[in-house]
């Protein structure tokens, strides 16, 4: 992750918000605001494609801080591992433009948790992404049901078949 200062700031802000306002729900969406600085841009003078993925990384980890799962996951000595990430680019983010990145859990199977991301500029979606994440502990991959127990989720199961068609159409990432 090459955006360490933005990550640290966003993580700190999420923790402070959680302490002051309480945690968000495990299935709720979290949104974080950023700005595209010149060092985020490529030679075409718009945000380079790798930055979209980096901002989605920040949103994923910060989502876990916002809902309180990060503390529980780390206490269990688990680490999130990205299995795949699919992004569909819709419009450019120009230098100095403000944008928001959102993250939310959309479903899971026995091995993977799937998260949905949007990067929004001026109310328009600039990119959408699906991340497939597993959690690894000292004994290897942790089954999703065990992870849900660790974070205290007791809501309904959301299998991959529950994913909206426009999300499912991104790629075969959800079928692997």
Describe it.
The structure is a single chain. By secondary structure, the chain is α+β, with helices and mostly antiparallel strands. The chain has a single domain (4-175), classed as Thiol Ester Dehydrase, Chain A (Roll). The protein is built from 5 helices and 6 strands; from the N terminus they run H-E-H-H-E-E-E-E-E-H-H. Strands 1, 2, 3, 4, 5 and 6 form a 6-stranded antiparallel sheet that branches. A hairpin with a 2-residue loop joins strand 4 and strand 5. Helix 1 (4-21) packs parallel to helix 2. The longest helix is centred in the N-terminal third of the chain and has 18 residues, at 4-21. It is globular. 30% of the residues are buried.
First-to-last CA distance: 25 Å
User: Overall mean pLDDT score?
Assistant: 88
Number of domains: 1
Return the CATH topology: Thiol Ester Dehydrase, Chain A
Major β-sheet, in short? 6 strands, antiparallel
Helix content: 25-40%
Structural class, by secondary structure, is alpha+beta
Show unreliable segments: none
Corresponding CATH superfamily? Hotdog Thioesterase
Q: Total number of helical segments?
A: 5
Shape: globular
Radius of gyration from the alpha-carbon trace, in angstroms: 16 Å
């Amino acid at each position: 992750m090459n955006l360490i200062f933005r990550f640290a700031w966003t993580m700190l802000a999420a923790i402070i918000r959680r302490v002051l306002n309480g945690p968000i729900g495990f299935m709720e969406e979290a949104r974080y605001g950023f700005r595209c600085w010149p060092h985020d841009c490529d030679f075409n003078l718009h945000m380079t494609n790798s930055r979209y993925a980096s901002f989605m990384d920040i949103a994923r980890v910060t989502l876990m801080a916002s809902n309180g799962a990060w503390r529980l996951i780390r206490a269990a000595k688990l680490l999130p591992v990205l299995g795949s990430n699919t992004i569909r680019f819709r419009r450019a983010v120009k230098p100095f433009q403000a944008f928001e990145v959102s993250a939310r859990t959309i479903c899971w199977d026995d091995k993977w948790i799937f998260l949905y991301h949007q990067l929004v500029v001026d109310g328009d979606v600039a990119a959408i992404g699906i991340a497939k994440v597993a959690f690894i502990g000292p004994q290897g991959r942790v089954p999703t049901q065990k992870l849900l127990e660790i974070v205290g989720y007791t809501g309904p199961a959301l299998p991959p078949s529950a994913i909206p068609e426009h999300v499912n159409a991104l790629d075969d990432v959800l079928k692997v």
